[in-house]
Amino acid sequence: MKTKSKNQMKTNQNQPPQTEDASGPARIRVLLVDDHPIVRWGIRDSLSRQSHIEIVGEAADGVEGLRLAHECQPDLVLTDIDMPRMDGLALTETLRRELPDIRVIILSMYANSEYVLRIIQSGAKGYVIKEANTAELLQAIEAVRRGDAFFSPDAARVALNQFVRTAGDGAAELSAREREVLVGIAEGFSNKEIADRLGVGVRTVETHREHIMAKLQIRSVAGLTRFAVTKGWVKVDPHD
């Protein structure tokens, strides 16, 4: 019986572990981040039946999720958007900076344009509506693990429609001054405070505000704030 040399043994020890063999696809290590225990239980129950998926940890908010991501080094993070302490978008942006090899899929109840565009900007590779069935979630996980992007059909349709509307509507382009006024509105400043900040009259700010609403076809402060956040002009503090 032949014995391996020390050099051969050292070489074998340095080789990465096998993640795929003839028995099935590569195992995918997943971290769940959602503040609803029942949701986590449902996802865990569905995914634990898949032999090639391993749930390596669970967290109830983004802060804990970030800690576990550093600790567990998963292949992929499944995270909700709305969570205490640090939301899913802030978590995704932080993971992109600190652990860029970890891919993120966002889970949400919503499929509106503001969420979809912010999710794309955050660096997430997938977006799955929570109402999706297990087959769609598995499809998303496997696609993102391969390096592809995956968006639920409803979310993809919303993003495409928003892109077409924005690309085809030249009136939606704001001037530099209008953008400054919009940022002030989104940050919660009054017309007078914005005027003082920009060194212009209150009436000038009011005029810019009217033009912004007309160009964007948005009539509420909440809507203007969402638009500014979607564009990345205003950052949302996850601790608020």
Describe this structure in words.
It is a single chain. The chain has eleven helices and six strands. The chain is an alpha/beta fold and 240 residues long. It has two domains: 140 residues, 3-Layer(aba) Sandwich (Rossmann fold); 61 residues, Winged helix-like DNA-binding domain superfamily/Winged helix DNA-binding domain (Arc Repressor Mutant, subunit A, Orthogonal Bundle), CATH 1.10.10.10. It has a six-stranded parallel beta sheet, with helices on both faces. Helix 3 packs parallel to helix 4. The longest helix has 15 residues. The N terminus is likely disordered.
Outline the secondary-structure elements.
Blueprint (H helix, E strand, L loop, with lengths): L5 H9 L13 E6 L3 H11 L5 E7 L2 H11 L3 E5 L7 H11 L4 E6 L4 H10 L3 E4 L4 H13 L3 E2 L1 H15 L8 H11 L4 H8 L3 H15 L4 H10 L10
Parallel strand pairs: 1-2, 1-3, 3-4, 4-5, 5-6
Helix pairs in contact: 3-4, 5-11, 8-9, 8-10, 8-11, 9-10
CATH-wise, what's the superfamily of the largest domain? Response regulator
Walk across the major sheet and give the strand order.
2-1-3-4-5-6
Reported for the largest beta sheet, the result is: 6 strands, parallel
**Distance linking N and C termini:** 68 Å
Fraction in helix: 40-55%
Which descriptors apply to this entry?
240 residues; alpha/beta; Rossmann fold; Arc Repressor Mutant, subunit A; 2 domains; six-stranded parallel sheet; 11 helices; 6 strands; elongated; disordered N terminus
